[in-house]
Here is the input.
Amino acid sequence: MQGDGYGGAFEQPAPGDTTVNGQNILGRWNHSFGLYSDLTVQLYWDRTWRRVPNQYAENLNTFDMDVQHTFPLGSRQQVTWGGGYRLYNDVFENTPALALIPDRRNLQLFSAFVQDEISLVQNRLKLTIGTKLEHNDFSGFEVQPSGRLAWTPDQRQTIWAAVSRAVRTPSRVDTDLFFPGTAPFTIAGGSDFDSEKLAAYEIGYKARVLTNLSASVSTFYNDYTDIRSLSTNETSNGAFVIGNNNLAQTWGVELGLQWEATEFWRLRGGYTYLGKATEIRPGGSDLNQGRAEGNDPEHQVVLQSMLDLPANLQFDVVVRYVDQLPMPNVPSYWGLDIRLGWTSIKNLDFSIVGQNLLDSQHPEFGAPATRQEIPRSVFGKVTWRF
Here is the structure.
């Protein structure tokens, strides 16, 4: 079992304060049937309460159960299957500025998946195929198949290619949002809003350059359809209705490097370049001309150091760079996270974490007039596994 939480008192905050608090608990049970077969059952509960002055307040409870089973099928196949159920209990406090109508809903998500890992040529060529099935209360059934082929010509190299389909199912923001909170509305949720769809393609190469040094490079191309839009609709009294009128393509490259400097010190680095293009589907319209759904950084860099110290201590450092966002403009920033952990006894860990330590606060998204900046933070965490 693992548990962690944040937040403090449950009483209402003073007027004008922006407050987020919550609690969560996770329980996981594992059972091994043999060397290559195991079963995992996981239960999870999360409560998040958020209040933004003069805009809204929300209390969201999430209950989740997942089951996963892995077993061999013959000498060349490894099958993994499972399923899950998730219940959202969402209570939204509407204001004159913003509303979700209805203001409270119970939403259910059912899921199942199966994956078969097939060794076509022993220790050389592997094919992985599978699919995920979901049913949600907005768009009904969704099918998300995937396939991956990996070739290992020798012990130091791997070349792979993958194709997959994924969806972003609708949320309450897509279907129930109304702005302002009372009529006449400027923005209205789309009752017919459909899932956003993605066809993803990837090719990659990984090599162990030295005994303690490995590097990887991968390229990707993503084709998106039915992306969220804002368009006028005569049946909604001139309001902009949330719909699916945008299309998009993204492409790029990811570089990775991992160096085991010593037995107790490991270093990782990564760089990502992202290019994109958005357009409006023929016959459709969008207030933002597709730009609101493509505000992403072009360049990102991550450097990570993991150091094992005496007395069961761990000292981890993460430095990251995120490029500027074009529209609305958000400046680029550097971030620094530090973690000091201690394993006092087996399966019991304590840690102190500092996040965004390079400045008191900085923006990461949103328009300058309304965005909330991310502050520097320090918190403690206890993890108990049994």
